[in-house]
# Entry
Amino acid sequence: MRIVKRSKGQGVKGSRENVKNCHKVKWLLKKPSKVVKRREGMSRIVKKPNIVKDFDDLIVYKLSEDMASWIYDVTRKFPSDEKYNLVSQLKRAVTSIGANIAEGYGRYHYKENIQYCRQARGSLAETKRFLLFSRKRGFITQEELDKFLKDYQTLRIKLNNYINSIGPQK
# Structure
């Protein structure tokens, strides 16, 4: 998107097509804006948006899929008597994070998208609860729990930022 800033009092112009194609996710821009000073009173801001074409382009979705894959690997070493109890619950909780992000993205109204992302946030907290319990029972090591908690914090922050970025453009 190219935004041209003019002298005081005048509005900001942008390309309608870029706004239409972009999923209104401002915080996903990979590179910061670059301000080029042209003449006194005029500057040009050039933005290179990370265009989101589908839910699998979202960073939060990719992080949730990475977490789900990691959980599946970790649960392989759980005792067999936990296969249909804790392992099943843990796998359902972690896969529902990405599923809710995807389902919310597919909804037509932004309020529904926000609702599904909040459910994804709840599933993320549920996953944390199951892993804390797994550590207490000795099914995972402290290093594995620490790795998860770091990834949990990152995904939680990015998911909250994504939720805050959804909505009508002002």
Observations:
- The helical segments are 16-21, 59-74, 86-105, 110-137, 142-165.
